[in-house]
Amino acid sequence: MADAARAPARWTSPARTPIAPSPAPSRLRAHAIAAGAVAVVTALGFVLEPSLSPSDVPLLYLLAILIGALGGRGAGLTASALSVAAFDFFFVPPRFTLAVTDLHAWITFGVMFAVGLAIGDLVVRLRRQETATHEVELRAQAEALRNALLSSVSHDLRTPLAAITGMATSLRDARVVPAEHADEVDTIIEEAQRLSRILTNLLAVTKVETGAAPRREWVPLEEIVGVALARLDDELAGREVTVDVAADVLAHVDPILVEQLLVNLLDNASKHTDAGTPLAIRAHREANRAVLEVADRGGGLPPGPSDRLFDRFERGPTLTAGTGLGLAVCRGVAVAHGGGIDALPRDGGGAILRAWFPDDGAPPSLADEAA
Amino acid sequence: MTAMPGPAPTGDLILIVEDEPPMRRFLRAALTSHGFRVAEAGTLEAAERAATEAPPAAILLDLGLPDGDGVEFLRRVRGWSTAPVIVVSARDREDDKVIALDAGADDYLTKPFGTSELLARIRVALRHARGRTLGADDPVVTVGPIRIDHARHEVAMSGTAVHLTPIEFRLLALLARHAGKVLTHRQLLHEVWGPRATHHSHYLRVHMAALRRKLEVDPARPRWLTTEAGVGYRLRDE
Predict the structure, then answer these.
(1) Which of A44, B52, B121, B153 lies most in the core, judged by the most C-beta atoms within 10 Å?
(2) What is the Cα–Cα distance from B195 to B186, expressed in whole angstroms?
């Protein structure tokens, strides 16, 4: 059906330009075309009548209805009604009256209406489909452009950052910098690494926001915790981080995305709490979902709805560096998995940020080995 | 993460394949100051020429070169050279790293990285390249505090015997044979479970978790059995 539809769709393409449904003027025009087609067919019928058989005239009107219906459902109806009226008036005996004596004529009328409605309906549906396809195409183009732009930005920024980090570590490791300037070299390294993390978050945001499905696997959350802690070795130095994650807590998630979520939660907690205060990572399973939490002993949640924490460019009250992107990425990641994230006050002071990830399917069995 | 200053005794030739001059300058400086000789190429074509002219002991290959697919180069080089190849790539390019590793690369570095990481990777790669030519397979292998006796199927951690299941033993033995080197999920699954199990990465993850419970002091902060996110696992040896 979609293929058969292509020809009339092309016919309507000049009117397609706006994405919104056709505006009123073009609708009026469609009705005018319908009326015109009926008039032309009527005139043609009159001229050709001597050489036509009586059953040919309704076929001519079907042609008018077809032309009218291409303008949409309303125009199809107009064409059908006018065709029936004109056919009845000019050709059905008694002629030049609207009176009908023949049952046969009623059947013809009925068929004319049905054809008009059906074609009109088909045209509307086609046009809607076409509009939708067009919109999908536009969106895909915009997405492809955004991804290409971001990955080239990412490459163009990462390479100089890698050179800066590399050379600064060379200076540090070669111990050629006088002791009183050692801090400056360390700061260059740290700041370059921070920029690199911001880039990673920018890319993560585009990844989750372009709506690509997460690549889910069954992963022990303990493994993701291990990777995140290793990545934040420097940031978390001097803090006690307790981990309460049993080995059998599996989550059905994209491990790279959830690692980024956990890195951001820990990074956020370390920025908004005093140095040296402890952090805790906990995970457990509930029916059909895995829950991952980061708890701190900081000043608690800022006043106001806790949802706002996860809005992009919303920053905490303390004066610390950040792009306001980290927690937005967390929410994006959780939502991309069909889950969510929230913030709760913690008993005894501090806050708990908690994300959950519903399973998408049953957990796998490990029937391959018992011993 | 302490760097080992001072020149390496070998003076091995390292081929740097990288199109960004600042990055090349960093790699050159870091390697020459540690006693390596370097050759440089900014394109894959130049790299292939350089590698044939003077066979390098190891190749550092940036996957983001403008003039072609680094993996294609890797496959071609693998046709006639056993020199270890370390690919250099960005964090969000895990798929590229896996493809390169499965195509014969020996290890990878994620940008940004420091000198100590760079030198550690090169040391491991060179050691494995030498081991490969010797073909020595010791019945007893020691990695850090972990001692693996292949003949007796026994494992000890800091002198204490540890009971492993047959699969855990195979997994550990495989990682130990490539100690210091990353192994991809696919490589591990293929070797331990067989060619038909290469999509069942959850087997691997669950057994790795069990192995960590038995061999790591704090399984959430693994010291030896580290996870290479999105790529695979590594048994660290330093």
Answers:
(1) B121
(2) 9
Write down the CATH superfamily of domain B13-134: Response regulator (3.40.50.2300)
pLDDT at B156: 94
- B43 has a chain A CB within 8 A of its CB: no
**pLDDT tens, A150-171?**
767 777 888 889 999 999 999 9
% of chain A residues with pLDDT over 70: 88
Indicate yes or no: CB of A247 within 8 angstroms of CB of B226.
Answer: no
Give A313→chain B minimum CA distance, Å: 23
What is the C-alpha radius of gyration for chain A, rounded to an integer number of angstroms? Answer: 35
Q: What does the pLDDT average to over B72-81?
A: 87
Q: Does B219 touch chain A (CB under 8 A)?
A: yes
- Which of chain B's residues have a Cβ under 8 Å away from the Cβ of A171? none
What single string gives the DSSP state of each residue in A39-98?
HHHHHHHHHHGGGS-TTHHHHHHHHHHHHHHTT-HHHHHHHHHHHHHHIIIIISSSTTSS
ipTM value, please give it.
0.88
Whether residue A170 and residue B30 make contact (CB cut-off 8 A), yes or no, is yes
**pLDDT, tens digit (0-9, with 9 covering 90-100), for A125-134:** 888 888 888 8
Q: For residue B226, which residues of chain A lie inside 8 Å, CB to CB?
A: 226, 230
Domain B140-235 matching CATH 1.10.10.10: the answer reads yes
From the candidates A152, A157, A158, which should be mutated to test the interface with B, based on the most B CB atoms within 10 A?
Answer: A158
Tell me whether B188 touches chain A (CB under 8 Å): no
Output the six-digit token pair for A63. 């042609």
CB of A175 less than 8 A from some CB of B: yes
Reduce the DSSP state of residue A207 to 3 states and report it.
helix
Say if strands A351-358 and A250-253 run parallel, antiparallel, or are unpaired: unpaired
Angle CA B69–A150–B108, to nearest 5: 45
- State the span(s) of chain A assigned CATH 3.30.565.10: 217-358
Contacts with B205 (C-beta within 8 Å, 6 or more apart), sequence order: A217, A218, A219, A220, A223
CB contact under 8 A, B111 and A162: yes
Average pLDDT of chain A? 83
Q: What is the pLDDT of residue B133?
A: 47
Q: Do A256 and B206 touch (CB under 8 A)?
A: no
Bridge partners of residue A241, in order along the sequence: A279
Q: Do A218 and B205 touch (CB under 8 A)?
A: yes
Q: Percentages helix, strand, coil for chain A, rounded to the nearest 5? A: 60, 10, 30
